[in-house]
Amino acid sequence: MDRAVKNRKKNSIIIIAMFIAVALMLCSCYSSDNTDGWGNNPVETIPGNTLSGNPVGNNKAGEVPHNNDEVIEEETEPEEDKESEESAETDMKEEAPAEPENPYQDKHIKLVLDDEGHDVFAPSTACLPDYRYGPSFIYNDDGSIDAWFSAPGDGSREYDWITYRHSDDIGQTWSDERVAISPSPDSPDALSTCDPDVFYYDGYYYLGYTSTINKRAKGLCNSVYLARSENPDGPYEKWNGTGWGGDPVPIIYYDGIDIGWGSGEPSFVVLDDTIYVYNTKDSYSGVPDRIKVTEVRTADITKDDWPRRLEFRGYAIIRNDKGTANPNGYAYRDSDSWDVAYIEESDKFIAVSTNRRFKNDSCILYFESDDGIHFERVSELNTNVVARCHNSGIMADGQGHIKKDDPTMLGYAYAGFKGSRWGVWSTRITPFTISYTDEPDMEDEGKSNLKLPISYRNSVADAAPMMLTTDSLIYTKTAGRGAFNITYYCQDNYKRKRIIDRSEITILEYDPNILSVGEDNWISPKLPGVSRVKVGYNGLWREICLCVLPVEGYTSNEIKEFYPMTARYDMSIIQPFVIKIRPMAVFDNLRLHELTGRELVTYGVTFSSEDENICIARADGTLVPVSVGDTVVNVMTKSGLSYSVDVHITDVW
User: Fold this and answer.
1) Does the residue 457 lie in any domain?
2) CB 577 within 8 A of CB 265
3) What is the mean pLDDT of residues 313-321?
């Protein structure tokens, strides 16, 4: 339940109790002619609850039921009964508990990093680039820590994987790491799984991540995805739009133009029955000016399908790179991912991010909020922060809460002073202290960060199996043409590979209508179609994809299927971002691709609005809101494939 709604209900009950007390007092003053002291007809209903907007007589959840017949009956009670009621009324007033005051309501959070911290990862000179950025930490009740990081993928086929590690001594030592989740080949998240944030709810670990399918965009057009598992290290099932498992579908889809970074870098907090979801949106307006914000969405997490019920609540902060566009003229410069937590002691939300990332004068920023929706920047952290930092994370429990007596830790990746090589980053954790001040304490903004270089691993003594890989990610075969085998590899944390005997592989999931698995794990394609195949080895697992064609000789030149990633576009006539339809296409070789740029011309894709008085659809798929209302945009290829999307336009944002 939203905290604001919860507080309104508390206040409503108190106000209703006061109205009841006033009504009882009026009853004791009624004259024998059934009028009140001013000659008016007696009051027969209790006034409505002005906080909730509903009359008390509606008897809604959290409100006091009212029966008019009981009030009328009370008007004729004997005097001694009235005295008893007055006495009960006095007792009620005396016994009613006072609404507790939050002593931190008007205070501001102050963070201080206790020391320089220590590295939990250093890149290896044997396998550059090497990194573990964007840490997500869960502090468990037993004092242990679960942690997830973005790590390099295999380079050419998959940009990033997400790894998992565990610590039993507050981050001093860590278990061997392994890949917890990786992309699903030939799917919307085919290129990457990065920027993890994890929370725990009702028996599952929920892992949010950033990904894209658009190879031509080179890491742009990102969206937010979600997966869950009963174990922190996987295997994870991905959200498919209606449930778990199968082809992944974004929970927050980027519907902007091709040159935008997109939507990603999720963070989660669970409070009461509400899930708060934060994400970066980095795109362009029609000028085109680049706009970077942190968005907020909420949902009732008790609903099984809560990922499809997320409601946009606004911008937590606007952090454009132009200082004049931001409150107080503060200059954001390449400010990156937010990580948000809820501080139980003060009933406040806190968020951390980095600013001037990859620069020698980089810093960590922190923000505060009373409602989890609207945030204000408090200050920079420079003391004990290493230069060229980026992508920070704050440790909290499985719900994203910081409890009063729990240890507090901040993590971030960094390139080090004058370190300029992309993808060569260390990761550090640092303890911090939370206190509160009457006014925002910004004394650390003028201080210098730590001008330290990164350290490297020069030994492979800690080598351990990390990922199961294969000779290909997508296998294209012809139905009925006989069995084939796959070569499997075990890759360690230094990117070294060794071949695994096929007999040691476990094939966990596949579509038996499309393929069969024989002795020694030979695979036979049976019928045309696409099957995801989940394979495992000694606790490591990954997905591969088998595309079975009806006959040989299929190319990727013709579109077989044509569909939208989202069926509805919600827009505003005053919104800052450009909205664009980017169609998805399945080609005759069963490969999936997002159509952008010149491909729209190549395949003769057209966009037409059924009501241009409400919305105009341009030739490149850009939607231009004109007036409030609803319309439909039809999308068609020159070969006759088509689909339609709903467009809903409001005048609020």
Assistant:
1) no
2) no
3) 91
